[in-house]
From TrEMBL:
Catalyzes the stereoinversion of LL-2,6-diaminopimelate (L,L-DAP) to meso-diaminopimelate (meso-DAP), a precursor of L-lysine and an essential component of the bacterial peptidoglycan. The active site is at 74 (proton donor), 198 (proton acceptor). InterPro entries: DAP_epimerase_DapF. It comes from Chitinophaga horti. This is Diaminopimelate epimerase. Belongs to the diaminopimelate epimerase family. Pfam families: DAP_epimerase. The keyword Cytoplasm applies. Its EC number is 5.1.1.7. Its main location: cytoplasm. The keyword Isomerase applies. It catalyses: (2S,6S)-2,6-diaminopimelate = meso-2,6-diaminopimelate.
Length: 259
């Protein structure tokens, strides 16, 4: 099979993307997806996405983790696929699409950022020194004092494969409060390693960093791959809506590969 692919990244969270509106890649196997995401033998990426047609939305987002298995919602992936949809000729300053966790809308900004509306969150488990919530994907959020010195792979893997999460898995986010915003590092399931950035993860971290007051928040987020911003309204102790993940989404290169 000859594949024409595009490589996009959003704050270092990188993806192999294909235009599948004609169904040309419907038969791609999980093993082939895994190969394409392999950084030594394939194109390399934290995940793979297909731009699919949908009768009720501008497009459908089909997402696979780097291990080749279908994945849950990916926030940076959604922003990158939105940028790709514009390159593929889908018009408008605002688009709507359907993903594994439901409908989304996204807006293009003049500074090159893509703003993606995330699903509302109305449940957060608050434990001793951690939070657990779902922002389209499940996230275990742990506040730390010095995130840059942390062994994210070892610490994150220990939580992801503990007795509670081993079967289904969870993403693990380590969060440090800064003078203005937060710094987030993420161990991502499906990649089974630290990624430079994770959109649903920084969203989860931003929500849990909010104060007690019910109001609209804007949280600057620093990741290894660069800056993001999360805006949201807190309407109750553990209830959040109008959540927007904002940041850059950039084409790296395109090419062809035979598999």
């Amino acid at each position: 099979m000859n594949i024409h692919f595009y490589k996009y990244q959003g704050t270092g969270n990188d993806f192999v993307i294909m235009d599948n509106r004609d169904g040309a890649y419907d038969q791609l196997t999980n093993e082939q997806v895994h190969f394409l995401c392999d950084r030594r033998f394939g194109v390399g990426g934290d995940g793979l996405m297909m731009l699919n047609k949908h009768p009720e939305y501008d497009f459908e987002m089909k997402y696979y983790n780097a291990d080749g298995k279908p994945g849950s919602m990916c926030g940076n992936g959604g922003r990158c696929l939105t940028a790709f949809s514009r390159k593929m000729g889908i018009p408008g300053e605002k688009v709507t699409f359907i993903a594994s966790d439901g409908p989304h809308e996204a807006i293009f900004r003049e500074n090159g950022w893509v703003e993606l509306k995330m699903q509302d969150v109305d449940w957060v488990e608050a434990g001793p020194l951690y939070f657990y919530l779902n922002t389209g994907s499940p996230h275990f959020v742990k506040p730390v004092d010095d995130v840059q010195s942390l062994d994210v792979y070892t610490e994150g893997r220990g939580i992801r494969y503990n007795e509670r999460f081993a079967e289904v898995g969870t993403n693990v986010n380590f969060v440090q409060q800064l003078e203005n915003g937060i710094f987030v590092r993420t161990y991502e399931r499906g990649v089974e390693d630290e990624t430079y950035s994770c959109g649903t993860g920084v969203t989860a971290a931003a929500l849990t960093s909010a104060g007690q007051e019910a109001k609209t928040y804007t949280v600057p987020v620093q990741t290894l791959g660069g800056p993001l911003e999360v805006r949201f309204t807190k309407s109750g102790e553990r209830s959040f809506h109008d959540i927007w993940l904002c940041g850059p989404a950039t084409l790296v290169f395109e090419g062809n590969i035979n598999i």
